[in-house]
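Hi V.,

Quick status before I head out on leave. The structure for the redesign project is tokenized and pasted below; the design run finished overnight.
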């Protein structure tokens, strides 16, 4: 199993241990890492490799947000990166207590990619035609992504598991 971590994080697969498909032919990603996992699967298939399952945990989904929202996010990041990341992580765990995470350094380009990414439904459908089972997990209390739009979008190509009282890390307590 190959796992891609969320924005500014590393080793965050521990938060999804109960849900992870731990097969050699599975790929998973959390939030920003879901984008990376999707692109990795595309490359694997293009190179003739087998992928059975793509798991997207709280996939970064901002294509329903307007330009003003994205501009405010990047301005806040530029103003004080540390404060932005602290607030970001707090919101990821909201409405529950924040847990310890392993952090990595970030760049403005990473945030811009995260906020500007547009999921392509046809490319996701192509994965399905190649035999990839796509699983999407969303938390009903997620304060980071647009859960309603993400749910509607991904339902067409995947199994969507909606965890009613869960946050961005899919925790319920």
């Amino acid at each position: 199993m190959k796992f891609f971590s969320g924005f500014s994080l590393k080793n965050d697969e521990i938060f999804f241990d109960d849900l992870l498909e731990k097969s050699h032919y599975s790929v998973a990603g959390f939030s920003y890492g879901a984008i990376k996992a999707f692109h990795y699967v595309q490359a694997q298939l293009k190179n003739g490799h087998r992928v059975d399952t793509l798991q997207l945990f709280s996939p970064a989904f901002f294509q329903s947000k307007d330009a003003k929202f994205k501009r405010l996010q990047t301005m806040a990041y530029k103003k004080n990166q540390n404060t932005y990341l602290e607030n970001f992580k707090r919101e990821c765990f909201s409405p529950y207590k924040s847990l310890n995470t392993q952090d990595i350094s970030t760049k403005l380009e990473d945030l811009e990619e995260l906020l500007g990414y547009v999921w392509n439904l046809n490319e996701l459908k192509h994965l399905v035609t190649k035999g990839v089972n796509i699983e999407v997990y969303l938390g009903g209390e997620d304060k980071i992504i647009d859960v309603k739009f993400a749910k509607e979008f991904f339902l067409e190509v995947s199994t969507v598991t909606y965890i009613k009282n869960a946050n961005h890390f899919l925790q319920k307590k």
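Above is the designed sequence. The first helix runs from residue 32 to 46.

G. will cover questions while I'm gone.

Best,
W.
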